[in-house]
Amino acid sequence: MPAAAADLGYRRRKLVDRLARGFCIGATALAVLPLFLVLYYVAEKGLAGVSWDFFTKMPMPVGETGGGMKHALMGTLIVVAVASAIGIPVGILAGIYLGEFGQGGKFGQVVRFSADVMAGIPSITVGLFVYAVVVLTMGSFSALAGGIALAILMIPTVMRTTEEMLKLVPAHLREAALALGAPKRRAIWRVAVRTAAPGIATGVVLAIARISGETAPLLFTALGKDYFSTDLGKPIATLPVQIYNYAISPYDDWHQQAWTAALVLVFMVLVFNLAARALVASRGAKR
Amino acid sequence: MSEAVITIARAQAAKASSVDEARKTGATPAADPMKDDATAVEADDEPGDATEAAPRASKMEAVGLSAFYGKHEAVKKIDMPIVDKQVTAIIGPSGCGKSTYLRCFNRMHEVIPGTRVNGKVLLDGDDIYGADIDPVLVRRHVGMVFQKPNPFPTMSIRDNVLAGLKLNRVKMKDAAERAESALRQAALWDEVKDSLHRAGTSLSGGQQQRLCIARTLALEPEVILMDEPCSALDPVATARVEELIHELSDRYTIVIVTHNMQQAARVSHYTAFFYMGDLVEYNDTDTLFTAPAHRRTEDYITGRFG
User: Fold this and answer.
1) What is the residue-wise DSSP string for B32-78?
2) How far is Cα B209 from Cα A149, in angstroms, rounded to an integer?
């Protein structure tokens, strides 16, 4: 083998390697760049409005500076709580069914496919559906309707992560529990679900993070409100809708408030994601 | 019963000969350990010492037992008693149905979807496949240790030992004593007594397997099934588990599946040789390894196949 030819081939390969790696790094940078730009932009515009008042006061009338978004913060917490109260149990129980009972069956396949389709449905469609079914029936926009809309968005994610996490639990652990004379329900609940718990919790937190920023499904369900309210049967203000309303308004003060609200919302989602990461880490903590 | 068992032994031998067409020796059916209640089985604790003649009761017994995966018959109409407070080893090449057979003894075979069992398994004379028998209750009497050590990763060492009791909602005032007793029986206490709160998965493989044995012992079963319990362990850990099996055979009836013939020879009083779902030969361990009645058995134990 001529040494020079081999050398040439090697140098060529090294060059190609470097080029390919460069492209990959470039694409990766391009992919995460928007995230940092968004964070930077929101922080730059929003930080100016962050004050204690923002969290504790109601909005001021147009023309007066100051004021806050207490009602929208409370509203978001309430709507997300309602969504969680419905979505988490339904999602987890359905996930347990899929993971532990519905593996081979037709019904399981149909549910799994529906969940995947549902996860991809535009959220505004869910809002329209809840408007038609809940709002028109109840005769009023309400916090409850908003919560139901968000729960519908949440369930597929929670259900599928629960199923996937249960599938990761080795079959021999279930067998060990059964061989100890555990009834199936307890083998599933105390061993399989318990082992999958950190993963399931991560899925739940990510689902909450996802829905807490949803705007479209709230537009014609929770609607929005200019006053403080905790009444589930009445319309309620939420951060995303408030941002939307303020951002399209013609007033500079409101624009400032919208930026600040956006910063708070991004921060909330960030906290949720960090919590999810902490949960994943706790998975191996008991070693 | 002796009549029936002799017939069974003949039937087994006949079947074995159909499996092994090359076999021309026409050997008489192996002396069945249960051949005669009065004479066949030695009472001595030394495996294979057949000089003493005293009755040995059968703790469990397979009667016409078949196990299926879908349409595939993995275990074919086995008749075989398991002698009380003795170690019975089941050997045979991979895929011969020995693990499947073992799993029929605590109704774990049916846990796998698409499986089915025909025939009977008697525990103290009662069929555990009877119509009104709850498989969950069977498993509390017939414990199982698996091939791979499988302590529950979310539980501490202590909770692992007590897991069977907790999963059965047994009210315990003496949990600490029970845990200690089970760990002592499993010869693990001295190694873990200062770290009972640590995760069960933090132990070494051999310790984990002894933890799994302790977990089974805590339920005070009558029979312990072991499915290749040492195949994932190193030689030192294997020796410890074998020693443990020997100690436990004073109080428990043990059935062990192993692909390791030396292990069967070391730990068991009786050995059954399975081939392609058939019970080819079943005898006291010494006889089976020194004077096998069937060519197929001899070929296997001398390493000519498998």
Assistant:
1) -TTS-TTTSS---SSTT---------EEEEEEEEEEEETTEEEEEEE
2) 50
Residues of B in contact with A182 (CB under 8 A): 136, 164, 167-168
**Measured between CA atoms, how close is B232 to chain A, in angstroms?**
14
B81 in Cβ contact with B254 (< 8 Å): no
Contacts of B136 in chain A (CB under 8 A): 181-183
Q: What is the dihedral of CA B141, B147, B148, B149, to 10 degrees?
A: 40
Q: Answer whether A180 sits within 8 Å of B199, measured CB to CB.
A: no
Range A111-130 average pLDDT: 90
Does B18 score more than 60 pLDDT? no
Q: Is the model's pLDDT at A32 over the cut of 90?
A: yes
Q: What is the pLDDT of residue B3?
A: 42
Question: How far is B218 from B144, CA to CA, in rounded Å?
Answer: 12
Residues of B in contact with A179 (CB under 8 A): 106, 108, 139, 143-144, 146, 216
- Contact between B117 and B72 under an 8 Å Cβ cutoff? The reply is no
pLDDT in tens, A160-191: 999 999 999 999 999 999 999 899 999 999 99
Mean of all residue pLDDT scores within chain A: 88
Could you give the percent of chain A with pLDDT greater than 70?
96
Confidence of residue B306 (pLDDT cuts 50, 70, 90): low
Inter-chain residue contact B168 with A182, CB threshold 8 Å: yes
Q: How many other CB atoms are found less than 10 A from the CB of residue A120?
A: 7
Question: Which tokens sit at A15?
Answer: 């060059």
Q: Where are the alpha helices (DSSP H) in chain B?
A: 2-19, 98-104, 135-141, 157-167, 175-185, 189-192, 205-217, 235-248, 261-267, 285-290, 295-301
Contact predicate B89/B258, CB 8 Å: yes
Residues B151, B177: Cα–Cα separation, whole Å: 20
Q: Which amino acid, A242?
A: Q
